[in-house]
C-alpha cells in the first residue's frame, strides 16, 4: 500500500481544474503505477465512502485485474462549495472519503487514479466517464425502496439514464 493511502496524508494533486471564477472544481491524483493510461481497460467507480461503494470498488478491481493495462478510476463528487472552502475542503474531503477504496485497490495491486469533482453527482460522473473513455461505470446501490428513490432521488438511477456506456450497479 502507498504511504499516502494508509496514513491519510494529503499529497499534492497531479492535476487541478478551475472554473471561470478561479474556484477549484476538480483535482486528481495518480496511485502508484497508474500513470496516464486511459481508455477502455479502465472502470470508473463512484465512491462516497459507503459500504455499497466499497463493494463496487471490489467488483471493479476484480474486473480490471485480468487485463493488461487495466486499472480503476475512482470518482468522488462534492456538492458546490464557495471559492475559499473549495481550496482546502474539496481535496481534503475527497481524499478522506476514498481512503478505504484506495486501500482495497492497493491490496489487490490494481493501479488507480482518484478524481474529486465539485457539482451534482450523476452528471459529473457520466461526463467524466465519457471524457476518460472508460469501459463502464460501477456504482454501489444503497437499496432504496421505490418510494425512497422517488422522494430522495437516486444517483445510480440518474447515472443509468445519463451514461452512454455500461453501468454496473453493485448491491
Backbone CA Rg: 15 Å
Distance between the termini: 26 Å
Q: Tally the helices: what do you get?
A: 7
Unreliable spans are none
Identify the overall geometry: globular
What is the third-level CATH name, the topology?
A: Rossmann fold
Number of DSSP-assigned strands: 7
Order of helices and strands: HEEEHEHHEHEHHE
The CATH superfamily is identified as: HUPs
| Proportion of beta-strand residues | 15-25%
The first-level CATH class is given as Alpha Beta
State the main characteristics.
171 residues; alpha/beta; Rossmann fold; seven-stranded mixed sheet; 7 helices; 23% strand
Describe the protein in words.
By secondary structure, the chain is an alpha/beta fold. The protein has a single domain (16-170), classed as 3-Layer(aba) Sandwich (Rossmann fold). The chain has seven helices and seven strands; from the N terminus they run αβββαβααβαβααβ. It has a seven-stranded mixed beta sheet with strand order 1-2-5-4-3-6-7, with helices on both faces. The radius of gyration is 15 Å and the shape is globular. It starts with a helix and ends with a strand. The mean pLDDT is 86.
